[in-house]
Structures are given as structure tokens and as C-alpha cells.
Design a protein that fits this description.
Number of strands: 0
Number of helices: 4
Order of helices and strands: HHHH
Shape: flat
Helix content: 55-70%
Distance between the termini: 49 Å
Radius of gyration: 17 Å
Largest sheet: none
Structural class: mainly alpha
Amino acid sequence: WEQRENETLDIAPEISKILLEIASMSLFGADVQEYSEKAIPEIRFANWYMVTSKFINFRLPTASNRHFRRARTFIDFLVQKMLNNPSQLPNAQEPLLQCLKNQGAE
């Protein structure tokens, strides 16, 4: 960032990447950093599409609908990865969702 002293910098992708890492580690105890480059644009597109496409028939084979389906499929894959393969970090604390699950079982 220091090299871009006189340039405009779009911080949204960087903040999205940080938020994805924080959420995945704190909620799931999973490290998804290797997927963040692909995940951020897909999540942003899915969010934009759901907000702006209120009255569109999602079954029509439009380019946006196909992109949304691909984005949703990737997001589903990422969530399953977080749920099934949490990282084994040294000194890692129990993820928030596991703590809540354990509380409900008591």
C-alpha cells in the first residue's frame, strides 16, 4: 500500500478478506485463506445479486443466474469445508459454534 501513495485504493476486497478470515476462524476454527481469492468475488456477487434481483425468475438460464448458481455452489463448498475440516492450530481455542453446540447439549 505504501507504493500506491498517490493512487485511489479500493479497500473493500481487503476488508472482505480479513472479515472472511476472522469469521471462519472464530466461528468454525477453520482456515480458509487458500480460498479467499476466489471466495471474496463470489460472496460479493451473491450478495449483490440477492439484493438487486428481487423479481427475477431464478430458473431462467441467464448469465447472471448461472453465475449466481456457481457462486452459491462455491460458497456451499466453502461452508462444508469449514464445518468438516477445521484447522488444527497450536493453542487454538474452541470455535464459537462448537461452544454454542456444547451449551445446548447440557
